[in-house]
Design goal:
The protein has two helices and nine strands; from the N terminus they run βαββββαββββ. The protein is globular, with a radius of gyration of 15 Å.
């Protein structure tokens, strides 16, 4: 993951407002960076997270964290295009496929992960992303994911 971030773009409730997921399923809590093709989120894993088991954040949580980073990107982009004061409804997406999933290490509950999503291709309502999860600058998981955006 390239770049060091000192100040987040958004945290907490501001992040929550931009994703369709709500507690206890929220797996992102910070937006660190966003540009035309790349988004970086952060997540401090609560000890009581539904995807934690025996003190570790398990595989389904990591996959959901990557998907929610993509959701955060979509919500943030929608908020940037909205008129001032207009309420933004977070776009809803569905994971269509996960490929080339590699999990090197499960993060401990209570620790923080940073997740980078890079947009590889967008074809109609389908977005192909590459997700990379890091902890202390070490890659702990990565995959390709196909996400379908729901039409309103």
């Amino acid at each position: 993951m390239n770049g060091t971030f000192t100040l987040p773009l958004l945290k907490g409730k501001e992040v929550s407002a931009l994703i369709p997921q709500k507690p206890p399923i929220e797996m992102v809590d910070t937006l660190w960076y966003n540009d035309e093709t790349r988004t970086v989120s952060g997540f401090t894993i609560p000890e009581d997270n539904i995807f934690c088991e025996n003190g570790f954040f398990k595989e389904p949580g990591i996959i959901e964290n990557i998907a929610q980073t993509a959701a955060l990107r979509a919500g943030y982009m929608a908020s940037q295009m909205a008129n001032k004061g207009e309420e933004v409804k977070p776009p809803v997406g569905y994971i269509g496929a996960v490929k080339k999933l590699t999990i090197v290490k499960l993060p401990k509950a209570g620790s923080e992960v940073m997740t980078e999503v890079v947009i590889e291709h967008v074809i109609f309502d389908v977005t192909l992303i590459r997700g990379i999860v890091t902890q202390n600058s070490d890659t702990i998981a990565e995959c390709e994911m196909k996400i379908f955006l729901k039409k309103d």
